[in-house]
Every structure is written in C-alpha cells, then in structure tokens.
Specification:
Two copies of one chain form a homodimer.
Chain A (H helix, E strand, L loop, with lengths): L3 H8 L3 H9 L6 H14 L5 H8 L4 E6 L7 H17 L3 E6 L4 H10 L4 E4 L9 H6 L4 E4 L10 E4 L1 H14 L4 E5 L3 H5 L3 H17 L2 E5 L5 H14 L5 E4 L2 H13 L9 E5 L2 H6 L5 E3 L3 H16 L7 E4 L3 E2 L13
Helix pairs in contact in A: 1-2, 1-3, 5-14, 8-10, 11-12
The structure holds a DNA duplex.
GO molecular function (chains A, B): DNA-binding transcription factor activity; transcription cis-regulatory region binding
Protein name (chains A, B): LacI family transcriptional regulator
Pfam families (chains A, B): LacI, Peripla_BP_3
Chain lengths: 338, 338
DNA sequence: AGTCCTTGTCGAAGCGCTTCGACAACCTAT
DNA sequence: ATAGGTTGTCGAAGCGCTTCGACAAGGACT
C-alpha cells in the first residue's frame, strides 16, 4: 500500500505539500504540482479513506436509508437509490446503504460514529420515529417524502397534492363526473405514509371545486384484489367513467378486468395512473399518467445535502411539480346513457 | 463527541482496557468490564469509524456494485441489495453502494483507499471487464452471477442451467412437444450476461434428451414487442403448446395476447415463468414458475464474503438449486388436433 | 537599502483508535 | 518457599492523513 509519505519522498517534497496538492487548499507552484502528480500516478497512490476521515472529520460518505419493505414502488425506490449514488459520486461522495430495519438506531449509529457526513431518508411516515433523532443531530439530512411536521427539516418530494388535483382536473375537463380512485394497499394508509393521503387530499378538494364526485378505495395489488375492489366500486357508483390509479400493481389488472367486462378504454372508461413512465408505456393500453420523477428526486436530495454540507443551503421543502402526460387511456366521457 | 479516552477516564481505566472490552481480544475481569460498559452507556459513546479503520486497517464495510441499468429484473436487484444490507449488518458490516457507472475504476478506488474490506459484484457479464481487477487485488470478493471463467473467483448464482432443464422437463412431463422460449431483450444476450445463455443451454440439452422441440426468441418487454414475437413464433411453429418465459415484462402481455386469441391457459397452452414469486402470484393467471431466490443469493454472497474475511472460506461457485412451483398456468398438453 | 507583503514549502502536532510488549498480582505445583 | 504460569491492566507507539504556524525567498514599495 502506497502512502502519502512515499509519494512525498518520491517527489522530493514534504508530506504536507502532497496533501495540499491533493486538496488545493494552499497554492502550490506549477512545477511542484506536476512533480507530485507524476509521482502519484507512477506509484498508483490512493489516499486512505480512514486516515482522511480521522484527520479531517469528514468521511465523504452519505448514508441512504431505504425502506426494508419491498411491497410497493420498488422500481421507484431503486431508481432513486441509483440516482442518489451517481449524483453523490459527481460531488465526491460515496453512498452507504442502510435499510430501515435498524430504525432510529441506525441514525444514532451512523451519526455517532462519524461513518457518514450526512443522511438521506426515504419512505418517511407522517410521524416518523426517526425524526427526533434527525432533528437532534447537527448532521445534515434530507428526507425524500414529507412528514406531518417539516419544521427544521429539508424535504424533497413530488407534490402529490398537486398530482391528485391534476388527475381529477384532466378527467373533469374530459367531461367525467364520477371518478373512482384506486389507491395503495390499506397497509400504506395505516402506516400513514404521507404521499397517499396527500394525493387523496388534492384530488378531493379539486374534485369538489369542479363539482365531480370521487370514490376512494385502497387496493392490494394483483387481479383478485382488484376484481373485488372494482366490483364494489361499480356496484356503489355504476356511473363511474373515470379512474385514477395510484398503485402500480393494480393498474394492469384493472385494464384487464375492464376489458373483460366489455368496457373499452378510453371509449367507455378513462384511466389515469400515477406511476413511473416505464410502467405507463409498457401497459396494455398506453396510459395517461403523472410520472413519479424518481431520478429528479434522488438528484435533488443529494444536491440539497451537498449544499448544506458546504455551508450554504437552508431547511426547506422542495415539492416537484407533477406533469401529466396524455396517452391512450383517457378520452372524452361517453354521452350520458341513463 | 465522546472519545475512547473520555470513557476510559470516566471508568477509571486506561484507554487500552476500554478498547479490549469493546473488541474482546483480551480477557477483562467482570468488574472492570461492567464499569466500562456502564460508562459507555452513560456517555453515549460510539467508536469513531475513521479512527478504527485507520488503526485496524479494517473498515467493516462491504462494497456492493449494482448495475446502473434499470432495464431488467429491477425488483430482483433491489431484493438482493436489501438482503445483502441486512445480512451484512448481522455480521457487523455496513454496505457501500456503488453503481456500475464507474466500472473497473470503482474497484480500484475502493480497494486502493481501503474504503471497503470486500466487494460484492452484481450483474456480471461473461467476460466482465472488472474481473482482472478483482483477481488482481487480495481484497475478497463475491460475484452474483457467473462469468465465463470462474477460476480464482467466488460466485453465487441460481443454477440457471438446471432452471432451464426444469422448465422443459415440467412441460414435457405434461405432454408438450413443441415449446417456445420467450427470452430477455436482445440487448441482454448481446451483453453476454451469462444467466440468459445458461438457461437456454440447460433448456435445449434437456429438450433434446426428452425429444421435444424448442424455439427461442428474445423479446423486449411490453405488449407491442410481445405481440410481434408471439405472431412470429406461432407462424413458425403453429403447434406450440408450451411457453417458457424468462422476462418479467413479457409475461403479462403474453397472457393477455393468448387470451385475446382465444387460447386458454392452461387448457390449450401452458406457460412456465422464470421470475420472482411475487410476479407469479400477482399475474392474471397464477403462474407455474421457477423462482429467482433473490434473498437467498444476497444472503449467501455476504456469508461467503464474511467467511473469506475471517480467513476460512475458499473460492468456489455456489449454484442454488432451482425449484419449480406448480400453479395454475400449466396443465396437460391438449390432445393432438392435426 | 530597508521594510512589508506575498507566495511556496516545510515540520510537527494531533485526529481516535488498536495492539504489542511489559509487568504487577495472584495462583499452582513443586 | 520458590520457580513457573496465568490473568488483568497499562503505557506507548503508530496507523496515514490534515492543518496550523513558521519561515525562507523573492517582489514591490518607500
């Protein structure tokens, strides 16, 4: 293993000079710099991370807490994680992967040991038990998701309220008056994951403004669950012509079931999904959808965090504006039959 | 920040004693141990990771290289990553997330800097460019996936050859004589990702032994691609009654298309999928499938790695035996019509 | 010619931990 | 009682780096 001292000797300078060449924190003459860089290359030197962390009290590592559950939005989580990792690298940081399993302890462990300089927390619940610990430390952190109380926290999320509103709006504009909302699994609501409730919120209040009716039903993924849910919905509101689906694994079953019942999409029924673009494009009917901008969220989170680490950067909530892409699953409401 | 020295002072012992209490590398009297542990608790002490790494030349971090692509098997990748992270924690390791983006450089960087003690590499190609670097370092590593030349490497993977064989076998036993294999996207084959070719291999040789015909077609995911592929297959082999699908995003389209053409599953056509159980269960027909044991693979990989780090543990290839679960998508071949 | 900066480099201290050798204190066997 | 082992604890060195103050050497002023 090559050390700083060896590089210094090889280049005929002192260790500190090499260090300053590396960090650029003091000016070094061109000649010396080149000699040092040459030696670094020749010897294949890599600074030792541990020594660096010890001496500078900075690890250049960002911790990322991902949910342990794989029951929802897995591709989105993955995409965020990848975006975080690649963006972090461009800022000179590596990413430490923490699962939710340890819970708040993980926060303590990582902050306490100086393993990471900062932390990104995904899958935040409205009243997340990790929040006190995040507020209690001076280690910067960014949440992906929105808790109930955001004071003293930096959060990045899709504006799910606007997302909900956008969906109804689109359907209402097309003349739909009776809209069913197929939501996430009941467990998601019980857990008080904010995004689901916020979507519903935006959806309902916009619906009221526009004078359209909504009916919300949580739904587990899969065919069987969707079949039951759909039957109930149509039983209660036979005139339903618009669907908003916020559950990746319910969307394809819904399409199949509608087809099976002889309801054509988009002629008889319109469907708007809240899902990644890839899902929307690969479905049996190309879905009008509001995308979940996973990459952007991951990137944003890292950039906020790096700003905080660099001293500028404030606590604030960044809500990404949703965008609805019209595809083949929505169309004008059919003429009223009854 | 609390340091070892402060704990030592608080407990009235020397720093080294505290260190030995923590590591258990020398015997400490019960009384002293308790006093130290008490002080640790009272002061809320957490050992500094950097200092530890520097002094012991061990970071207690395992690097995990995940693919940058999100074009295939994302849930599987995610599940593996989570399994790796949680298993690693039970052995006292944290996980550093590296994307494939940096390629071989990441290997050099991480080994060179002592950031991680060991490395798990996913999405290995047959002739992966990272292999030379992995062989060249004495840092232990485990691959998830199988390259062409496994000498000097430890690998963990599903036995895809046996998986392929198992699929044909099941269909052949049910009387199917003409089997279509719907594979991954062409890009996967071009990249020479081993698992796809190995599956095909096992599938074909077993088919030959059993005297059944196979026709393999790669296929992008989604409806349109699947429609084209299916049409071609049925054109070339109208008598096809069995399908093996190794592409998550082709399976649902295939089922829909078959249904649409009036071919009932499993009465007219049988379908075996190679996919995670969750996908198999949530499909419109509960699929007979060979599961991809993501958790097991992640767990195995970490355990191999830890064994190596502990000195025992050898280079070897661990192939997990596939298991076929019979569900509702396969049945006896229909009586020959022609 | 002397003073004052600026620029480039060095030496040394120290980050918080592990680990090795030393060594009291005690126990056991002669 | 003495030699020989254990057992439990300590002190000190050192891991590889960063960073601070010091200080030559030269340039720009009076």
């Amino acid at each position: 293993m090559v050390t700083l001292a060896e590089v210094a000797q090889h280049a005929g300078v002192s260790a500190s000079t090499v260090s300053y060449v590396l960090s650029g924190k003091r000016s070094i003459s061109g000649a010396t710099r080149q000699r040092v860089e040459q030696s670094i290359r020749e010897l294949g030197y890599h600074p030792n991370a541990g020594a660096r962390a010890l001496a500078s009290s900075k690890s250049n590592i960002i911790a990322l807490m991902i949910p342990l559950r794989t029951d929802m939005y897995v591709p989105v989580m993955m995409e965020i994680a990848i975006a975080v990792a690649t963006t972090a690298r461009t800022h000179g940081y590596d990413v430490l992967l923490l699962t939710g399993e340890e819970g708040p302890d993980a926060v303590r462990r990582v902050t306490g040991s100086g393993l990471a300089d900062a932390m990104i927390v995904m899958d935040v619940e409205l009243d997340d038990e990790r929040l006190p610990f995040l507020r209690g430390t001076h280690q910067p952190s960014v949440l992906i998701g929105l808790p109930a109380d955001t004071s003293g926290l930096t959060c990045v999320d899709l504006d799910f309220k606007a997302t909900g509103a956008l969906c109804v709006e689109h359907l209402a504009t097309l003349g739909h008056r009776d809209i069913a909302v197929i939501g996430e699994a009941p467990a998601v609501y019980e857990r008080h994951t904010g995004f689901a409730e916020r979507t519903l919120d935006g959806l309902r209040s916009r619906a009221q403004e526009l004078g359209v009716r909504t009916l919300h039903r949580p739904c587990e993924g899969g065919y069987d669950a969707m079949a039951v849910t759909l039957a109930r919905v149509l039983d209660e509101r036979p005139g339903t012509t618009g669907f908003v689906v916020q559950n990746e694994s319910a969307v394809e079953p819904l399409l199949a079931l509608l087809r099976q019942q002889g309801r054509a999409v988009p002629e008889d029924v319109s469907v708007v999904a809240i899902c990644p673009d890839q899902v929307a494009v690969q479905a049996s009917v190309r879905l009008t959808s509001v995308a979940i901008p996973a990459q952007e969220m991951g990137r944003h989170a890292v950039e906020r965090l790096v700003a905080k680490l660099d001293g500028h950067g404030t606590d604030e909530v960044v809500l990404i504006t949703p965008e609805l892409t019209e595809r083949a699953s929505t169309g004008p409401a059919p003429a009223v039959a009854s």
